Amino acid sequence: MILAVVKDPGGTNGVLPVVKVLRGESFKFDVRLIANGSAVKLLSDTTENYEALHSADEVSMRYPNPSIMLTSMCSDGGVGRDLVPLLRGTCPTVAFHDYWGTRLFPEWHDPKYRPDFFVVNDELDANIVMGAWPDYKREQFIVSGYPMFDQYAVKYDQTELLTSISSRLGIDAANKPIVLSAYGIYKGVNKFLSEVIDVLNDLNLDIYFIPRFHPRMKLNVPEEVELCNQVLKRFNGGTLVESSSACTTQELLRASTVVLSDYSTTLLEATLLRKPNISACYLEEIKVNYQVEFGTVQKWMPDPPFVMLGCSAKAVDKISLGQHLSDAIHGKLNLKSAQEKYFALDGQNAKRAAEKIASLI
Length: 361
Hints:
alpha/beta, Rossmann fold, 13 strands, 2 domains, elongated, 6-stranded parallel β-sheet
């Protein structure tokens, strides 16, 4: 019997594809999916077979002898992390990263929480872990690609998508470039927006500009809403799409000509969709947020991973931001070869991880 423990949305999305493969026809394992934290609500909206258990002791009493334990790496540790020391020497434990560098400090830094094996996306991910955890060995890594990326291997009809988006947003998405500017930060985001608008106004290209703000902005920093509205009034560098709420972020990413952000995961999604994309982290407000988000890990990840891998263009000031935007709109950013090299989309990441896990039992 396999235990699989999930907690947060990202962690759940990372582990669940592997659970499905292990339960499927190729393996037919008995996998007990354990939810805690927000995963309880997330899984309640699916047809997945799961249990809600809220402490490591509760899980170990119910399932004292698993063959192996899989866990997401989530905020504040959670049940999966707390099971690692309880199962030490009893069965193998496998942790899943869903983003480079996350949760290594502070939640999982105590050596007692070291999993026996670690599912990572690539060598960069593994190197960051070994920098943060010097006692960890390379043979403990399962380099499979993040299982959640398999969804991007599914083909879609671009013409149909553009027609649908045009109808919902009242634009002609098939015949004019779309600049999607997605903001991961929310405190101080008006300054980032102002920078982008200055650049687009200077370029003065015939484009659609779609700003997309962090969903927590209104709740966490409501004052930013009016500040951003005032900044948007200055835009005259194309056609502003004032509201894009009729479309999902993933739909807009698929439709966009270029994606611009700070260090948010929208740039990762853009990379997986083979889109030209630009990371602009040079403003002080963004630097502060990055420091808060990654802390000590910055020593091994000074730039977002997709920038370090050459899959996103790095803007270092307003001039380079304008040049990258112009190059992207005119098809000259040239990121695709690196994107294909570091993020191969064969739809087999979950299967690769499952095969290695099966070999450990």
